[in-house]
């Protein structure tokens, strides 16, 4: 009886185990029906189970229950693809050592940059691991699309698998990526050149000059291509002048088509800024697109040379133009001991800034140091060895100017040669107008006396002292031969007509107040009637 009950229990446990194979926990207690009798199982210890059968006694037998483990799925890339006909592959498998007893249907998702059905043969998202195997190879059959579209990707990601009874889930290797290499060559070449004005002799652009850009597109195939679009951002330090359409700082040129092995060109112009201080190059790159490929322009024809994708135009060093002009305020003639006032006009006639300017008036030997100077900018500094006056200016912008005056006394000589010049920290292309020389003839005699006149006449009817107007307060006394005073003025101004004076010769004394003191002149004058 004991052996029969033990066999009955073992049979029930086997049936129970088959019913709950997919469960991960161990059932320690259950109730079932055996041969019309109620049998109760209960835990006796960790490894043994006790049972009671109706009408029988309690027996104990060892029992081991093991979890059911379903293997995971994995997918790995085994080969990349390449145009025109090299196919790629992936392998979908269960764990090593597991053999499918039934067909396992595996589902997966498809992603990547390659287009399903266009770049490779259509995949439907299902694969079958046949019964008796533990893997399947899935091909990625490439389709040559004859387009330059670069390397593309096919990404397959496992979802799940089933053999109708068991469910298989993805493991650690749940995704694989197959690359499809492109074999198509770009169907066009593009390059860009810069053309400077015809009078430009050194290949360097100046402020305010025109740059003409020509963009060439060559069709490298035996069939026409198009449409294409050329776009070019206006280079820094320039303004657009002409050529197709400008939008948000970008020039756009649509090209309908380019004939087989043909070349098409487009042109536009820019004008450089008026101030290019600190700018060494004008750089620019255009782009050409056929809708699939966008390529930069090269700086030369790719067939004739090797160059990069930046078209560069050097900028002529900003040297600008400083000018100085030395003039005299007032009218001549100038005489010894006279004060002469010079006006210096310094101007930035260029298009760039000048800094650290030094304006100098190199005084000649016969001109005294100035007793008065004025300047709209800068402060005068005088020196005696050599004798000169200088003004220092920090900065002079384009179009700006400085006006300086200096007043000095004429010491001696027959002429005064005064030289002024200006220089700055920046170089100049033309230094010829950086210097100005002013020459003044000196009259040795400051006054000229007329020795005869005819009172009441149409002309020469007064006693004239040429130059007396320069010396206000001149004292004139006229004497007869007997020493009598016939005329006197404390501020003579060429106004003695001698209307009531008898004809004859008269003596005069003139006291002239000069800056160096009073000077006395004497002589005779003949009155004719």
TrEMBL record:
Residues 1-27 form the signal peptide. InterPro entries: CalX-like_sf, Calx_beta, Chlamydia_OmcB, DUF11_rpt, OmcB-like_DUF11. One of its GO terms (biological process) is cell communication. The keyword Calcium applies. One of its GO terms (cellular component) is membrane. Residues 83-184 form the Calx-beta domain. Residues 335-439 form the DUF11 domain. The keyword Transferase does not apply. Keywords: Calcium, Repeat, Signal. It holds the Pfam family CHU_C. This is Conserved repeat domain-containing protein. It comes from Chitinophaga sancti.
